[in-house]
Amino acid sequence: MNKIEEYIDEILVEDNQENAIVGIDRDDIDAFRKGCDTIDGAKIQGTTSSICNALSETFADIVKRNEPNKCEGVILSIKTSETYDLTMEEVSDILDVFTKHNSDVDIIWSLATKSSLQAEDLELILLVGVH
């Protein structure tokens, strides 16, 4: 199993457990795959204050690595600690990273808790579909 398949499995396993607030299912993943030729991805961890910069750099690297193909869509799994209440403003800031690069990009996102994360840490799994 390659890294992308591992990321997809991790999203689906964790998002289908009771800890999902907003989930992604197999149909979402299958529809995403049909709309792109290639999927690239990464896992990012950091504090809520640093995650947007890390995400922006990672997304830019993925887009550059796949040039001249165009980014067709994004799946983003956001995981927080069980004790941190992520605000909608913080979620919006995270999602804005993609629209700054491409205002037309389709974004499918999920939000779940993960017991192994510390108070203000986030874990993001980013999948980018290119065509």
Give a brief outline of the structure.
Helix content is 39%, strand content 31%.
Topology diagram in text:
Elements: H1 3-15, E1 20-22, H2 26-34, E2 38-47, H3 51-65, E3 71-80, H4 88-101, E4 106-113, E5 121-130
Parallel strand pairs: 3-4
Antiparallel strand pairs: 1-4, 2-5, 3-5
List keywords for this structure.
131 residues, alpha+beta, 60s Ribosomal Protein L30, Chain: A, 5-stranded mixed beta sheet, 4 helices
Describe the protein in words.
With 131 residues, the chain is of the alpha+beta class. It has a single domain (3-130), classed as 2-Layer Sandwich (60s Ribosomal Protein L30, Chain: A), CATH 3.30.1330.20. It is built from 4 helices and 5 strands. The protein has a 5-stranded mixed β-sheet, sandwiched between helices. Strand 3, helix 4 and strand 4 (106-113) form a beta-alpha-beta unit. The radius of gyration is 14 Å and the shape is globular.
CATH homology-level superfamily:
Tubulin/FtsZ, C-terminal domain
Q: Tell me, what's the shape?
A: globular
Question: How much of the residues is beta strand, in percent?
Answer: 25-35%
Alpha-beta content class: alpha+beta
Low-confidence stretches: none
Based on the coordinates given, report the CATH architecture: 2-Layer Sandwich
Mean model confidence by pLDDT: 88
Order of helices and strands: HEHEHEHEE
Terminal CA distance reads: 22 Å
Indicate the radius of gyration in whole angstroms: 14 Å
CATH class: Alpha Beta
Q: What's the main sheet like?
A: 5 strands, mixed
The CATH topology: 60s Ribosomal Protein L30, Chain: A
Provide the spatial order of strands within the biggest beta sheet.
Answer: 1-4-3-5-2
SS element count, helices: 4
Number of strands: 5
What number of domains?
A: 1
Helix content: 25-40%
